[in-house]
Amino acid sequence: MKVPLVDLRRLPKHVAIIMDGNGRWAELRGLPRTAGHREGSRAVRRIVRAARRLGIQALTLYAFSEQNWARPPEEVAALMELLREFLISERREILDHRIRLRSIGRTERLPAHVREVLRALEEESSGCDGMTLVLALSYGGREELADCMRLIAQEVLRGVIHPQAIDEALIDCRLPSMAEGAVDLLIRTGGEQRLSNFLLWNSAYAELVFSSKLWPEFEVEDFYSAIAEFQSRERRFGRIFSHQNL
Ligand code: FPP
């Protein structure tokens, strides 16, 4: 594959990825689905490294959705174990490269042995000033909005904020996934073209790039190519450009 040209001066600040296709990758090879997730976590390592080297400011990965709890218990357990292994094996690299690790989602639902390593690395890396890596875990975009509305309603009840003060900026401040700013580029692998309850508010003006590659086979060149595609698009945010405004 020809290496796509990426303009380092016009990088998306915040990239988000729906890493889809692990199961199909394994099934195509006659392997258990968990083998696909294992290969998928290798892809996570190379894409995180590539994003950091390029100079991406924030990368949000959809690692486990709120709906994924409904998968067979052995698959959920395997995903939890891979997550724990990732946090342990990447700890040194994360800290050495000053990556700040954060999580979003209802992480209190994660098993204690995962929550502990997650909290510890979030804490240890909290002062890091390099790329921010956000893991969406037990995450759902609709759930995040519902949690946020509940919080705001409580603040209204306590008299801390007036209903008139509820606007887009206030919601931006209350949504954990908006801490790194809105998503500029959202990539989905695996051939499906939908958001599947990921970052709903944040991706209002995101450029969407769909790859037919299954996540375990998503290479660094595919990541560059998604960024090059982003850079070829004209972002208008609902406006029109002055030269069209005649
Ligand atoms: C979707 O593939 C992927 C997931 C449900 C989980 C993503 C997890 C990883 C990439 C590995 C672990 C994560 C980290 C951060 C180390 P699918 O199973 O829905 O694939 P299918 O659509 O082919 O069935």
Secondary structure topology:
Layout: E1 14-18, H1 22-28, H2 33-54, E2 58-65, H3 73-89, H4 91-96, E3 100-104, H5 112-124, E4 132-139, H6 141-157, H7 168-174, E5 185-188, E6 207-210, H8 220-232
Parallel strand pairs: 1-2, 1-5, 2-4, 3-4, 5-6
The protein binds farnesyl diphosphate.
The site of farnesyl diphosphate has 21 residues, from helix 1, helix 2, strand 2 and helix 3.
User: What's the domain count?
Assistant: 1
Q: Going by CATH, what is the homologous superfamily?
A: Decaprenyl diphosphate synthase-like
At the first level of CATH, what is the class?
Answer: Alpha Beta
State the order of secondary-structure elements, H for helix, E for strand: EHHEHHEHEHHEEH
What is the count of helical runs? 8
Uncertain regions spanning at least 5 consecutive residues? none
Ligands bound to this protein structure: farnesyl diphosphate
Output the structural class.
Answer: alpha/beta
- Assembly classification: single chain
CATH architecture: 3-Layer(aba) Sandwich
Largest sheet: 6 strands, parallel
Q: Which percent bin holds the helix content?
A: 40-55%
Which outline best applies? globular
Strand content: 5-15%
**Global Rg:** 19 Å
Q: How far is the N terminus from the C terminus?
A: 43 Å
Structure summary, number of beta strands: 6
Overall pLDDT: 96
Strand order of the main beta sheet, please?
Answer: 3-4-2-1-5-6
